[in-house]
Design goal:
Elements lengths: L5 H10 L4 E3 L2 E3 L10 H13 L3 H7 E3 L6 E3 L8 H18 L7 H13 L1 H5 L3 H17 L3 E4 L22 E6 L2 E8 L10 E4 L16 E6 L5 E5 L15 H4 L4 E11 L3 E4 L2 H5 L1 H5 L1 H30 L6 H26 L2 E2 L5 E2 L2 H14 L2 H10 L12 H11 L7 H15 L2 H11 L5 H11 L3 H12 L3
Parallel strand pairs: 1-10, 5-8
Antiparallel strand pairs: 1-2, 3-4, 6-7, 7-11, 8-9, 9-12, 10-11, 13-14
């Protein structure tokens, strides 16, 4: 089939029968017409339509090596610097449409599948059949243009013990039965973002396994259709309050529902099992396959688009109310400019230092990407803070679009800006409100801060994984010099 249209994506959604629990209701059909999911589904449909538009097609697609059809460029196996640049261009095209607020567009998990499908050396350590299966699944996802969500970590119940010890080992998703034709999984996992509108759920290894025999039942990688029997999603309440795109410009379009995943004796056939047992290989899943590198390449590209959005928004606000000449405002704008340029430089530096994997895949430089993913969660917390500072009490005096009908003259007179009409200023400040002070913006800040996990643990992992010996040796050599 190749690239889907938005209509095909929506039709597939309505044909599925997932088990979604949200706001006291179980939803299992007509997802594209349900108020909790409709706008998000339409937004993702727009992404699929962009693949067919002449102005975006070259960036977003390439020719499938098997079918000859156009497929999404996030499935392109990078072998050359040009391939990495094409992958970045594709990610940037979707990211700029959402201004970086969609964290789980299809290219995120597609990047993981692309790396995994080529990591034959890694899978041979367990059984070559796992590599063959995930390659076949990658081709299935590529040729059908699927949207996958994924789930990674145990439920947040008692973090003082491992997942295998919580509730007597019965809490976290685990293999409870191995059969000749597959396995059965029970338990729960967090956190499946965009789950309600996904085609597939990828259950990839948690990378915090201790590597003991007790961890074997929790060590697996599988793919599950989103409406598989026994699969349930406990969805958080939506952060879109029902307003239009004038009053809730971000939440109305980009609220990606997150969900806890419950496996109630879910059967997984052999062809959808990509790793079983082998905790030590599950711990190395992202690092040794290149999946971590390609996924982070996508993330850093997306977050550049988000940084650019906040720079643009802050600049528009400053100009609209005449504060752009003040030194303390320019200091904050300079901070946003630095963050944009640092993010762009990190992406380019990672590509410039790319090196082939043992399987011949050109992977962007991991140490640079790792620095980026440790840096951005911290600096991004400043973005909404700067917007709140620029707008100040203006964020608390915002009539809605409907008020223009009954108070248009007052709005035009008293809520105008330096170079904007009253209605124009309200529209801009509604965007600032949704980007800095609403539940939607709060979830965005939390999402970015913990995107790759606990920043403290991430920092420790970066220190322990970084080769500091060459720079330490330079210091020792300097101390030993006579001149």
């Amino acid at each position: 089939m190749g690239i889907r249209t938005g209509a095909q994506f929506l039709a597939k959604l309505d044909a599925m029968r997932p088990h979604l629990v949200i706001d006291g209701e179980v939803v299992s059909e007509n997802l594209t017409r349900h108020p909790a999911f409709r706008q998000l589904a339409l937004t993702y449909a727009r992404l699929y339509d962009m693949q067919h538009e002449p102005e975006h097609r070259e960036a977003l697609t390439y020719v499938s090596p098997t079918s000859g059809e156009l497929v999404n460029a996030s499935f392109l196996v990078p072998r050359t610097p040009q391939d990495l640049a094409q992958r970045r261009a594709a990610t940037a095209t979707w990211a700029e449409y959402s201004n970086g607020f969609l964290g789980r567009t299809a290219d995120y998990m597609n990047s993981a599948l692309t790396a995994l499908a080529t990591a034959k050396t890694f899978f041979a350590q367990a059984d070559p059949v796992f590599g063959e299966r995930i390659e076949a699944y990658y081709e299935f996802a590529r040729e059908n243009d699927l949207l996958a969500t994924h789930t990674l970590i145990p439920p947040q119940v008692n973090r003082s013990v491992s997942g295998s010890e919580q509730m007597g080992g019965q809490l976290t998703a685990r293999i409870i039965e191995e059969r000749a034709d597959g396995v059965v999984i029970s338990g729960a996992r967090m956190l499946a973002t965009v789950a309600p509108i996904a085609d597939e759920l990828l259950v990839f290894p948690s990378t915090v396994l201790r590597g003991t025999p007790e961890d074997a039942p929790y060590s697996f990688a599988v793919a599950v259709p989103n409406d598989a029997p026994g699969l349930r999603y406990l969805c958080r309440t939506g952060l879109h309050n029902g307003g239009n795109t004038h009053d809730e410009p971000l939440a109305a379009r980009f609220d990606e529902i997150d969900a806890v995943v419950v496996f109630d004796n879910v059967f997984i056939p052999n062809e959808r099992i990509f790793m079983l047992g082998r905790p030590e290989l599950c711990n190395a899943w992202y690092a040794e396959t290149g999946a971590g590198a390609l996924m982070t390449h996508q993330v850093v590209t997306r977050t550049v688009a988000k940084s650019e959005f906040y720079l643009g928004l802050a600049s528009e606000i400053a100009g609209a109310i005449g504060i752009d000449g003040f030194a303390h405002i320019q200091e904050d704008l300079a901070e946003l400019i630095r963050n944009v340029e640092i993010g762009k430089a990190l992406v380019v530096a990672a590509e410039a230092q790319a090196a082939p994997s043992v399987d011949g895949v050109l992977l962007p430089h991991w140490e640079t990407l790792n620095a980026a993913r440790n840096w951005y969660p911290k600096i991004s917390q400043r973005f909404p803070e700067i917007i709140r500072k620029f707008c100040a009490s203006g964020l608390m005096a915002l009539p809605g679009q409907g008020d223009l009908e009954v108070a248009g003259e007052d709005i035009a007179t008293y809520l105008q800006g330096k170079n904007l009409t009253g209605p124009e200023r309200i529209r801009l400040f509604k965007l600032a409100y949704d980007a800095s002070i609403t539940g939607f913006s709060g979830r965005q800040a939390l999402y970015e801060y913990f995107f790759f996990g606990d920043p403290v643990r991430m920092a420790g992992a970066m220190v322990n994984g970084y080769d500091r010996e060459p720079v330490r040796a330079r210091v020792r050599d300097f101390l030993a010099r006579d001149q």
